Amino acid sequence: MKRQKRYWKRAKERREMKTEKPLRELSIEEILRLTFELYSKKFGSFLIPMLVASLVSGSFSALIGRYVENMPQLGYETNPEAVWSYFWNYMVPLLAIAFIIGIISWLISTIAEGTCVKFAAENIEKGEGSLGEAFNFIIYKLPSLIAAAIITVILIVLGFIALIIPGIILAIMFSLVIPTIIIENVGALDSLSRSRRLVSNRWLKTLALLLIVYLLALFVSYIGTLIGQPFGEFKWLIGSIISAFVQPIIPIALTFYYYSMLAKEQQRMIPPPPPPPY
Q: Is 117 exposed, middle or buried (0-12, 13-18, 19+ CB in 10 A)?
């Protein structure tokens, strides 16, 4: 009897913990609510990859900052030869270090974000997921993620250089590239056109969601920076930890938005009912 009660209790808990896959297009409010619900249920699993990425990025930024602080200052009357020597001895190494650190941080952030997307997708579709399996899958798909990220960044930057508005439009069009690669298991080029089709006729809605989640992440990161100021050399650590708490919201929200747009697409494909007989 006790064993049966435990069984039904666990079954009830699993039903309460399960996140249903959207069967219709969701509003922004619904997407945000589901995002925070899933994040609260799987808080530790979502936090771990983002915390690692945030700490790595924060530590690298602190190293660059310390390098810059230790660089000698040039005087106003420095001769051209000294300026040229300063450039090759300090600025070139700084740029090289910053480039290498930027690439490493970007790769780790891509892996962390992709892991969260895969883990969120598994929980949405199956009601549960494995963080380890999600991580392994992202490592397998990393070449496609990197290729897609490079293409989208180049196109968006060119769009912003051109007239800003094209850059915003391209950012909206390619906002679901990562979920598409991970969930539909497609390549980099296919993910670009697929993302564009998913968000078609929903430009303003997509922009609104992106603004909400990214501004929220930036605001919390800024608060973390302010809180970390009194801690001196360890301010980067405090800021990175606080920032990591809000970072999972972005991939989770984009995953729910992907399923919402997928449901919208599938509803359009459903044929209309036959006319009533006369």
A: buried
Cβ proximity of 182 and 259 under 8 Å: no
Q: Is residue 275 part of a domain?
A: no
User: Is residue 278 one of the residues assigned to a domain?
Assistant: no
CA proximity to 100, closest of 77, 124, 67, 69: 67
Beta strands in the chain (DSSP E): none
Full residue range of the structural domain in which residue 121 is found: 28-72+79-269
In a domain, 23, yes or no: no
The pLDDT tens digits of the residues spanning 43-58 come to 999 999 999 999 999 8
- Determine the average pLDDT of the residues in 35-44: 94
Q: How many domains, the chain?
A: 1
Non-local (6+) Cβ contacts of 136 within 8 A are: none
118 vs 166: CA distance, rounded Å: 30
Round to whole Å and give the CA distance between 115 and 163: 34
Q: Which of 105, 187, 117, 99 is nearest to 145 (CA)?
A: 187
Task: Give the distance from CA 264 to its chain's centroid.
Answer: 23
What's the sign of the alpha-carbon dihedral 260, 263, 267, 269? positive
pTM of the model: 0.84
Q: Which of 237, 243, 254 is nearest to 217 (CA)?
A: 243
